[in-house]
Every structure is written in C-alpha cells, then in structure tokens.
Amino acid sequence: xxxxxxxYIHIPFCASRCKYCDFCTVADCDLLMPRYHNALIKHIKEFxxxxxxxxxxxxYFGGGTPxxxxxxxxxxxxxxxxxxxDVLVDSEVTVEINPDSITQEDLILLRKAGFNRLSIGAQSAxxxxxxxxxxxxxxxxxxxxxxxARKAGFENYSLDLIYGLPNQTRDDWADTLNRAMRLxxxxxxxxxxxxxxxxxxxxxxxxxxxxDDEAQADMxxxxxxxxxxxxYHQYEISNFCKKGxxxxxxxxxxxxxxxxxxxxxxxxxxGNLRYSYVSSPVEYIDAVESGGEIIAEFEELSDxxxxxxxxxxxxxxxxxxxxxxxxxxxxxxxxPIDELFKSYVDKGWAKFVYGRWSFxxxxxxxxxRLIGEVLDTQAEHxxxxxxxxxxxxxxxxxxxxx
Length: 402
Known about the structure:
Helices cover 43% and strands 22% of the residues. It is of the alpha/beta class and 402 residues long. Strands 9-10-8-7-6-5-4-1-11 form a 9-stranded mixed beta sheet, with helices on both faces. It has a 3-stranded antiparallel beta sheet with strand order 12-13-14, with no helix packed on it. A two-stranded parallel sheet has the order 2-3. A hairpin with a 2-residue loop joins strand 15 (350-353) and strand 16 (356-359).
C-alpha cells in the first residue's frame, strides 16, 4: 500500500442557523440525529472495500456543528473508521467546534480517542456583531473554549474569523485579530464575508452597514501584513499558520490529492472521479437505509479538466503553479499562461519565485477575475492548437527523443 487518502465527514446539524450561512446545514432537527448517525456508520462500513490499499492520513469532521452533534457520536464514527480503514497512527484528525456547544468532558473524550486538531468558530471579538449575525456565543466563550482545549491536551487549534461583517470597521477587525492572536492559535482562517441570496443577510446587501469592496480589501491587506509580522505564514488566500501547522486535510483539496467524503452533500475526489452526495439529510438517510442512489453529481474528468482544476486550485495557494506540473497533467504548451502572468507582474498582481507563479496579496484580492482569465487563456489555446494527444507532430516529437 503506497497511496494516501483523506476522509471528510459531514455533520449537517446546528443549534441554529447563522444569518450568513449558505452551507448544507439544518437546525432544530435533533430527532433526526440517531437515524443520520446510523446511516453514516452504515455508509462508512459499506464503502470500506473501495479504499482497500489506501492509508488514511487525514480525517476532517465538518458541518454544520460537529460539537453540537455530540462527542460520543463523533468518537463512534472515528472508531468505525479505525476499525474498517487503514488509519495512520499519526494522521491529522480535525473537528470543527463552536464555543457554545463544547464542554471540558467532550474535549477530553475527543483527545483520548485520537482527535488532535480543532477548528474553532470564533468569527469576531465584538459581541454585538456576533449577536447580530446569529452566533450563539460571546468572545469570552471562545477564550474559555481555548483554555479548555489546552487543558484537554490540544496543542493544534485553529480559529475561524470573518471580516467585512455588518457594522464592522477596520479598527474593530484589528481588535479581533489582536485578541485572536493572544490565544496563540497555530492556525487562523480569515474569510471575507460573502452574502448569498438565500440567507437573511441578503436583504442588507449594498446597505451602509455592510463594508464595501474597498473596505474589505483594506481589511484583507491589513490581515496579511499583520499576521506576517507576528509569524503567521500565509499558505492560501484565507489561511495562515505557524511554521509546519498548515491544514494537511485542506491541502489535499488544493493539491488535487485523493479524498473521500461521507454524509449529506459530502464530495469526493478519487483519481479522475468527482462526485457528491444528495444534500438533504433525510434523502441521504433514506437512500443509505434502502440501498438506493445517494450520488447527486458525478463526473469523470479528462486530462484537460484536471489541468484546469490544477490552475484554479493551485492559484489559491501561495505555492502557486509551475509549467512542469501543468505539463505533467496536460501535455500542452504553458507559454500563453506564462505570458499572461508576466503582464500581471507589471501590475503587482503576481510573482515568479523558484520556477513557480503565484499571486501577491493584491492579486489574491482579484483572484476570481484573474483565475477566470487564466482559464480563458487555457481554453483559447486549446481551441487554437487542439489537444496535444490528437496531433501527429506531438507523437513525432516523442519519437525524436529516442
């Protein structure tokens, strides 16, 4: 066995739904938890033969609010994984927790079972803002959760923060960053608020209480500069860490590595296969119980598709992309993309270091647009030149090497 795979477990349950949340979550559905739990366990067991020959080196429990689901259920799921999969002893095992739904006893139980990384939903240090966006905790509870985590033996914990929240100023965001860093997390995830159409905050979009794009950009650049000054390395658009504490599981997504998901809406990437399950927890439960169809989307990617993913995901990271890696996936010229990035350098949006292109902080602010331009350049080149596998001159060039 020489292949590794990450496992993602989706827990869709929450005590209540935050006003900005657009994820696959349900609130006030506690009575559904036992059925969901049994279906999840059944699914994990039945899928195990398909990952024979793989080592599990990362496990991530996301949501929703896994801590609200209950530590005992989480341990049972992890025990099932250990009993039916080849889970490495030193695997990274992360669980998302909210400060209002975790106890000291829970954390001790999780740590004893082998969980070794926490992702704590803090969001802001301003209690008025937390209340406005529907969070059920105060920042004082965040501080208490961190203290309990340390006491339980967790050294590796991350804080999730959001900038661009309603009524949030730059000074308020600076205070949130400062108070978060005092808790000495190994990792910080700092996300800009995105207001989705089907959320309560959508009614406020464009209003004076929502920081505009310029204000958000200012908060982002301040974040990058400040965290660097305090020893936090930026390794992805929104993620920063102390040396050696990158999220190994999330890196799998950005590096196109293998991962398998379980639970409603969970996605998987196994080779050229991409698929995800039905988003409704009830539909997921019914399908697993009856042996019915649980896959909602399925796609088999071509080399060109994988190269596009490589560009799109790689450019989210500070490690960036290289011509050598691109051509190992899709044997076509990298020159048009190379020329595009040279034009970005002149505008301060990109840099070329040790043979790799990546965005600068200013480039990350425009990443959606710039990545779109990169993909358009790739598509235009394919349309003009055609697929390298179809061209006789490509085959001739291979023979000429011998």
